[in-house]
Design a protein that fits this description.
By secondary structure, this protein is an all-alpha fold. The protein is built from 3 helices and no strands.
Amino acid sequence: MINIIVEDFDVFRYYLHRTAADLVVWTGDQIADAIDSLGLSHLYPSHAALAAALGEPPRPRSYFDPDTPF
């Protein structure tokens, strides 16, 4: 197993392409969580942007309406 510390998106993209032949598949949400955990969320516009960059289909938007009964 290789542990990679991401310092910027270009470095991340480099390692992502280097390991593209591996069977590990990361989703936009997994990448966003990893970037967020490193305190680097300011480097990308949104989770949806990461998903779009990876070619994932858009997820339906969900929101909480406090006036709707459970």
